Amino acid sequence: MLGKTANGLFWMYRYIERAENISRLVETGQRIALTRLDSPDDEWVSVMKTAGVAKAYKRHHETVTKEAAIDWMLRAKENPSSVLSAISSARQNARVVRTALTHDVWEAMNGCYMALKDALSRRVNERDLPAVIDLIKERTALVRGTTQGTLLRNDIFNFARIGTFLERADNIARILDVKYYVLLPSVYSVGSSIDNVQWETILRAVSARGGYRMVHGSQASPRDIAQFLVLDRKMPRSLEFSVTKIRDNLEYLALDYGDRHRSHELAEALKQRFTAHDIDAIFDYGLHEFLQDVLGSLNELGQQIEKDYRFYE
Amino acid sequence: MNESQTFDEMWGREQVLRPPYERFHEWFEGEDIARLRAKQREAEEVFRLTGITFNVYGRAEAEERLIPFDIIPRIISGREWQKLSRGIEQRVQAINAFLYDIYHRQEIVKAGRIPQEMVSRNDAFLPQMIGVKPPGGVYTHIVGIDLVRTDDNEFYVLEDNARTPSGVSYMLENRETMLQMFPELFSRNRVQPVQTYPLDLRRSLAACAPADVDEKPTIAVLTPGIYNSAYFEHAFLADQMGVELVEGQDLRIVGGKVAMRTTEGYRPIDVLYRRVDDDFLDPLNFNPESALGIPGIMDVYRAGRITIANAPGTGIADDKAIYSYMPDIVEFYTGEKAILENVPTWRCSEPEALAYVLDNLHDLVVKEVHGSGGYGMLIGPTSTRKEIAAFRDKLKARPGNYIAQPTLSLSTVPIFTQKGLAPRHVDLRPFVLVSPAGIKITPGGLTRVALKKGSLVVNSSQGGGTKDTWVLED
Amino acid sequence: MRLKIRHTTRYAFDDPVIYGLQQLRKTPKNGPEQRVIAWKTTVEGGVKELSFEDHHRNTVELISFEKDVTELVVRCEGEVEVLDSSGVIGPHRGPSPLWLFRRATPRTRAGQGCRALVREVKGEGDLDRLHALLRMVHGAVGYEIGVSRPDWTAEDAVTAGKGVCQDHAHVFVACAREMGFPARYVSGYLMTGDRVQHEASHAWAEAHVEGLGWVGFDVSNEMSPDERYVRVATGLDYAEAAPVTGSRMGGTGEALSVEIEVAQQ
């Protein structure tokens, strides 16, 4: 496979994952705004922070309003991580790797782009927002579905998965890091209404409410939430799960190619951090510090994969 | 234009249904117009979703457009095709022989059959190709011959495309779409298949690999990238052939070969089907500004270690000034009269011809010698006095830049409109593959159709569409 | 005369070279006027990828930089037996047709300056006229190291009234073509009486004279080449006969040193 193709696949799937994550954050933000009475616009700053788009927003806007924040996250061209930008980038990469994709995946990707370009061609008003969010989820799910259903399990699939899970791990780590203080056991008294809303935000933002209830029941505690999102091996949007997938897919590549690289060591080391610690140990170490470490490691791993598999040079 | 002067491929000149269209007509009569309208829309949707688009330049944001597809097939009988393909084969053979000669001993110039200036003053002549023997002796691995029809038995070659002819993906996708939408039509008519083209192309390219390459040469398609107007086709062909689609940035010289950067290191390429123009192919040897090419690829080529398809420098054979000598060229190298006719052509570089052309601008089509895509041309009969006057000045300023031809009364084929069938002018580009194993012509080709009533410009960049082209098994 | 030649080019870079190629035309030609007895190119910091003969019958070697090198050394050495033919190389041999050498290139396009020179040329017969041109160019463009740039055209040199051997050859080629002669640029080595070491290779011109074939003209020394001249590469101008043409990524801050030794055996 061409290094360029590996790069294109990696980024196509990162962008697909990003578009979906951003749309979920918009949905969460809207939900909070609707259920809270006090200064809901402030909450959008926090939502944009979790999406990693707050700084750029401030460069383009003087005030934070709900409309502007939603627009920034869904369709701003100046925001490379808006849903529309991400989907355009995903499709651009898909065009580059067209020959590595099945007809079904390409059509799903192209259809996704055409549908969302149309739906996001003008400002989305409040009334249409749920339908647009659903469309984003549906269209990106279709890309994922055709990927699962039609791609050979070879290097093409592995690079797609590595891109997906690097983006996902990065996204979860960022969400947790923005909100980590509400998960710290000692800061607020358990059961305060503020915490409930914040926890709810976190769970919603990673589509984990249902899963959490199944595992931990309806009683939410910060420790359990942290455990669930950082260390649960069955939760497809936990850090542990994502990191394991990255490691596994890298291992499949090593098996296929008969060659190991430094990125395999990095992935294994990253994975070990999760296996070796329980949540209390992580709290002892410092959740924020732990998340910062993980974000740093993910970044380093991404760059190492680029190098080992000759994405650029 | 008076319609009765025009030959319609379905109805002839006398409104009598021509035999190749009999079964189609029977089917069409039984069809519901509303259903066909829905099918036409459905076809567009398929094309859009598949991404069969071309990029339009000159705007802030590159825009992707569809080339309109018309659902009414153009039908050619097996007998008509046989004669055409004999003529095409002869012409393509002559083009290859001409290229070999021009880059070696130039016997045709020495024999006085074409003037030396035609070569020495020609920008398409590539000195770096002098004395080079391309692997397998093939210069033009892929050729597209543009044909027009004016009567039952009258075909003319309008243009030879010996550089990097495009459009073959439309030929294939048009057929695919028709098969999906109207399977019943294909059980009623025995249409010669075109779908083997990608496999044929792959075989043909493999047969042209450098001599020292073992039985399974590595082939790749070179594209300028996703912003190129024909990117879809490049990806399509690579995909269908099962080979890598590479850009200049993926390639460098390793171990004396051109090699592509893979996830497992550099891997040598034996045959490169390039869709990048000569000038941009090698910044070390040609245009140093080119970011699309591979520095040193010409050196590898001249050392005989890669096949470049088509060979660099083939543009000299499809130059519009050389075109006017094609009947001589065919005769010189094949010893036979050309089976396919050339459109009579005035070379404006010759004073007498120029005088005639200036006097008859309103009747003639004047083309730029090196132009393509229908730009920079004058169609006398449909131009205003002002346009003609403006063109006259351009022509006088640089006569050597132009050739002129009579306006041919191009044949029409019906297209499907809101009101049913309506005749529109067409041309035809059959695709030809050349290898040491022989010449292979895909039955049919790309029919381009001027969608505007009366228009003679079929170029997709100027509002032309395409049709599926059927060659019947007689 | 038997000449022993050693040509060493050393490149040092501040930053490592990521990737790069050099096209070398440093191997002397084999022909009736000279015979290559032995020749060898060795590269340090690079790899010899391939070699071929171009359309001027120049031996071209392509070398690539090894990854991340900061120094590249190219060493060419060998022996050549040269005959004195009073500058006459003889009949044109392909593969390039003779008419190709009538083509002006961007560097050899005759403008006002060259045309003015040509108007002054007097003489009976082709050879006379070409020798007159040789003297004319020698007088009009003074030899001065360091004034001209490698990308100068013939016109640039005529306008400046000075230049080096490359400029002299370009002006002569441009004028000779303007006078109707096929002409070409030659790069090569010259043994001089005063020293063995040189910092650059030499360049001169050749024009094709009916009946005689190619004849050499060295403007810088105002004479036709003799047995001290070793022909290496020919072309329509410098670009086609340059000892080195390269492209690379990375490797900024290039420092170049050239050592050429030409000595009689």
Averaged pLDDT of chain B, please? 92
Radius of gyration of chain A: 19 Å
User: How many structurally independent domains of chain B?
Assistant: 2
* SS field, number of helical segments of chain A: 15
| Ends apart, CA distance between termini of chain A | 14 Å
Number of strands of chain A: 0
Which shape of chain B, going by the Cα principal axes? Answer: globular
Protein name (chain B): Putative circularly permuted ATP-grasp superfamily protein
Pfam families (chain B): CP_ATPgrasp_2 (PF14403)
Organism (chain B): Rhodovulum visakhapatnamense
InterPro entries (chain B): ATP-dep_Glu-Cys_Ligase-2 (IPR051680), CP_ATPgrasp_2 (IPR025841), UCP005522 (IPR016450)
Question: Which short descriptors sum up this protein?
Answer:
heterotrimer; A: 313 residues; mainly alpha; 2 domains; 76% helix; globular; B: 474 residues; alpha+beta; Dna Ligase, domain 1; five-stranded mixed sheet; 16 helices; 24% strand; hydrolase (chain C); peptidase activity (chain C)
List the helices and strands and how they pair.
The complex is a heterotrimer of chains A (313), B (474) and C (265).
Chain A: H1 3-35, H2 40-51, H3 54-60, H4 66-74, H5 83-96, H6 103-119, H7 129-150, H8 155-183, H9 193-205, H10 209-216, H11 222-231, H12 239-257, H13 262-276, H14 279-285, H15 287-308
Helix pairs in contact in A: 1-2, 1-4, 1-5, 1-7, 1-8, 1-9, 2-8, 5-6, 6-7, 8-9, 8-11, 8-12, 8-15, 12-13, 13-15
Chain B: H1 22-29, H2 33-50, E1 53-56, E2 63-66, E3 69-76, H3 78-102, H4 107-110, H5 116-120, E4 142-151, E5 154-161, H6 168-181, H7 183-188, H8 197-206, E6 219-222, H9 231-241, E7 244-246, E8 251-254, E9 257-262, E10 265-268, E11 271-274, H10 278-281, H11 297-302, E12 307-309, H12 315-318, H13 320-323, H14 326-334, E13 341-342, E14 346-347, H15 351-359, E15 364-368, E16 378-379, H16 385-397, E17 402-406, E18 412-417, E19 420-429, E20 431-435, E21 438-441, E22 446-450, E23 464-471
Parallel strand pairs in B: 3-23, 5-13, 6-7, 6-11, 11-12
Antiparallel strand pairs in B: 1-2, 4-5, 4-20, 8-9, 9-10, 14-17, 15-16, 15-17, 18-19, 19-22, 20-21, 22-23
Chain C: E1 2-27, E2 34-44, E3 46-53, E4 59-65, E5 69-82, E6 88-90, H1 112-120, H2 125-140, E7 142-143, H3 154-160, E8 162-163, H4 165-178, E9 183-190, E10 197-198, E11 202-209, E12 213-217, E13 229-235, H5 238-241, E14 244-250, E15 254-264
Parallel strand pairs in C: 7-8
Antiparallel strand pairs in C: 1-4, 1-5, 1-14, 1-15, 2-5, 3-4, 6-12, 9-11, 9-13, 10-15, 11-12
Helix pairs in contact in C: 1-4, 2-4, 3-4
InterPro entries (chain B): ATP-dep_Glu-Cys_Ligase-2, CP_ATPgrasp_2, UCP005522
Protein name (chain B): Putative circularly permuted ATP-grasp superfamily protein
Domain Circularly permuted ATP-grasp type (chain B): 73-450
